[in-house]
Specification:
The protein has about 350 residues and is an all-alpha fold. It is built from 20 helices and no strands. About 75% of the residues lie in helices and about 0% in strands. The termini are far apart. Keywords: Repeat, TPR repeat.
């Protein structure tokens, strides 16, 4: 009876159900889409179009990061076709993304036993080996993934990561470029490309990559932080002020955001504004000698020598061997002595 039911769907019913499936996918109603596909699989399983819809929907769920749904769908598919390499590979993909690495490895190994040329299975294997820090094996698997799936951006992305682990940065950069060429909106290789460019000192290109990511995801914190670092190195302070201001809106209690905001103000010569907000940075990390020294330097440039001396003394209490703090302490002390013509090493009394 079940076999007969699988072949009773008329052509019109199939087309109607296919249209519903695509509509639900467009609306991101994953459960209804899955229900449609399961009906298609159960009643018209042997039609190649039905299996193509499974592959398509599985890819959509992966891109949408709906991994629980992908796992459930793949398990339903495998109940109908237990020896499907694609079903096993997508099941492994979902398990990997859900952090169930041992189960993912088992499912993926089964997929490769059934089809050792399946690109997704090799992509999965390289990804699992990277997560397990099996770097030589991961590199070999990633190279194999590229051989059998040269048009899959994920294969090239994993190859880039594997090469990075061996500090083969130029080769990794080439792999990420291949991945991005296949999918210009693939955030993962874009971020790692930017990281490599920063390490190589190619700051203008690193900034351009970060801007490309932000065009796709305006609130991407990693891209904003990478762009801030590049802009600081390039001394493009007005742009840095804007970007660090955006970071402060997203992560208001993060030292990185405050430090780059303050350095942008200082780079533009706005030392008075920097002095007004620098305590926000110090409150987040009060034992950081660099931040106290930054405060001392800001006050010194404003000719506020007593405040500069106090801040530098605080820095030296944290690290008495920190040369920048020692230099600022000596310079501020000298200025105060010239002003007052008397020693100024004793801090002023503070009201109780």
């Amino acid at each position: 009876m079940n076999e007969q039911q699988r072949h009773t769907m008329t052509a019109q019913e199939f087309e109607d159900l296919s249209a519903q499936l695509l509509q639900h996918i467009t609306e991101e109603d994953w459960q209804l889409a899955q229900n449609c596909l399961v009906r298609m699989l159960e009643q018209n399983f042997h039609d190649y179009r039905t299996q193509s819809y499974y592959t398509y929907f599985a890819k959509v769920l992966e891109q949408a990061e709906q991994f629980e749904q992908l796992l459930e769908l793949s398990q339903q598919y495998l109940r109908l076709k237990p020896a499907s390499p694609e079903g096993l590979a997508f099941k492994a993909r979902a398990l990997q993304k859900l952090g169930r690495l041992s189960e993912a490895t088992v499912a993926n190994d089964q997929a490769l036993l059934l089809d050792n040329t399946l690109p997704l299975a090799w992509i999965n294997r390289s990804g699992l080996q990277l997560l397990q820090q099996k770097y030589p094996e991961a590199l070999r698997s990633a190279q194999r993934a590229v051989e059998v799936g040269k048009n899959d951006p994920r294969a090239w992305a994993n190859l880039g990561v594997a090469l990075m682990n061996f500090q083969r940065l130029n080769e990794a950069l080439s792999a990420f470029n291949q991945s991005i060429a296949l999918d210009p909106e693939y955030i993962f290789p874009l971020q790692l490309k930017g990281e490599i460019l920063y390490k190589l000192g190619r700051m203008t290109e690193a900034a351009e990559v970060a801007q490309a990511i932000l065009a796709l995801e305006p609130l991407n914190t990693i891209a904003l932080m990478n762009l801030a670092q590049a802009l600081r190195s390039l001394e493009r302070y007005p742009e840095l002020l804007e970007i660090s201001g955006q970071l402060l809106q997203i992560i208001p209690d993060h030292v990185f955001a405050w430090e780059h905001f303050i350095r942008a103000l200082r780079g533009m010569g706005s030392y008075a504004q920097a002095s007004q907000v620098i305590d926000n940075l110090i409150q987040l990390d009060p034992t950081n000698v660099r931040y106290w020294t930054l405060k001392a330097d800001t006050h010194y440039r404003l000719e506020q020598y007593q405040q500069a001396l106090t801040a530098s003394e605080q820095a030296l209490e944290i690290d008495m061997q920190y040369p920048p703090a020692q230099r600022l302490h000596d310079k501020a002390l000298k200025k105060l002595r010239l002003q007052d013509r008397e020693p100024a090493s004793i801090r002023p009394m503070r009201p109780v």
